[in-house]
Structures are given as C-alpha cells and as structure tokens.
Amino acid sequence: MTLLTNEENTLNFSPSCERNKDAILARLLPILSSKNSVLEIGSYSGQHALHICRLLPRLTWQPSDQLSLINDLNENLQHHNVNNIKPAINLDVSNATQWPAEKYDVIFSANTLHIMSWQHVVAMFKHLPQCLNNNSYLCIYGPFKYNGKYTSVSNENFQQWLQNRDPVSGIRDFEKTNELATNVGLKLIHDIAMPANNQLLIWTNKNVC
C-alpha cells in the first residue's frame, strides 16, 4: 500500500503535518493504545488519520471537516483504503446539529484553533462534551500564547501572517483555552512542548487526583 509521502498522491497535502506526524503519534500512543474510537476535528487531508490508523488497526477513526473540504478528504481516504477509518463527515463546530450522535474515547484536532475564529473555538468547546465517553480525552495540537506572550519569534511572525490572511484567526491564549475546557468539565493533564514551537494539550473528563 502506498504511503502518504508527497504532494503528488495527496489532495491538500500538508508538509507540516508530514514533518510532525511521528512526534504527535509518539505522544498520543499511550492514550490511543488503550482506546477504541477517535473523532478528529478538522482532518483536512487525512494525513494524521491515515498515519495513526495504519499503526493502530484496532482504533475506529471518524474524520471530519468543513463541507468545502469533504470531497477531497474522502478521495484521499478512499485512495489509501485503511479499513478502520470511516468516511469523513461535514462538521461545522458552531452548528449544534452537525455534531455526531456517537460518543468517542478521544477527540483529536491538529492546527485548527488558530484557523477558526474565537467564536468557533468557544462553540467547539461548548459542544464537544456531548461526543465524549466517560474516561475520555481531548487532544489539541498547535501553537499557543502563554500569559499573552508568543513562545517564539516565528510564532509571532506566524500570527501576523494569519491576521493578514483572515483577521478573525490567530494563535490562541493557553489560559483562555484552558478556561473553556475547565468550564465543560475537562481537566488538563499534559501540556507538552512539541517540534516547531507547537504544543500538545491533553485534557480528560475522568477523575484525576
């Protein structure tokens, strides 16, 4: 089976995803190895789903994205035919009716919060608990600010690029994001520094001492 390794065989191929997918998997593996189901928010090209599900065939993975990206995403998934990945669903996180009725052991999202508006981030945290099983996890990967400060000059430059592209996007404040999670009953258990000045934030809804 052909692996996702270059832009030629993948619609909307993400070079940054390709560079960071192994580092993300290494940190998620202790959680994913004991779980059965994942909802991914903002799957885009499907590179994370394909990479992880090949190595963890017992997982059932539900990709999702905005309607404009669904056809390309599903074409990628069909081309590589990994049996434990479901067809992608349309999910506008601000639309309560589009959230799936199923519950999942893990909700995962990479490089999405800085693309969404803050209003969409708020809506996402409001609705996601309805899709979590008991003893489940929320895992968010991407850049964050801490105490209003960027973790690197490159992230500060990236913020300017984001704002020029779309004024409602931007690198989110860790403290405000964590407050949204806390308000819906999630507890932060890991804040992991990742390559390229990103973070992997992991919350859980199980009782943590």
TrEMBL record:
Signal peptide positions on this chain: none
Protein name per the record: DUF938 domain-containing protein
Superkingdom of the source?
A: Bacteria
